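Model it.
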Amino acid sequence: MDRPILFYAGNEGDIEGFYDNTGFVTTTLAEKYGALVVYGEHRYFGHSFPSQFSKEDAFKEGNNAYLTVENTMMDYVELIKQVRKDYNADDKAVIVFGGSYGGMLAAWLRMKFPSTF
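Modeled.
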């Protein structure tokens, strides 16, 4: 059986909350398919802030210039590249999913980066 990577495209919140609410993926699907499950935390949310700003200053005018969909998608592409390298999984399918805005990110990732997702 080919083991996929299940990737959650995080959205506007801390990743632990999303993880806590997706037991079907982390247990049922992951176990059934022997999948590696990876959760990507969206930049500027949870613990993921640019190093040059404190969490308190990140949303001040001018400091949120790096909070774009394009930058977030590239974060996820780079994260998956690293995961594939770390787990010797270059040939594994990456199935991207999410909910609400994260679901839109998942669709856009699939459309824009079909060789990754």
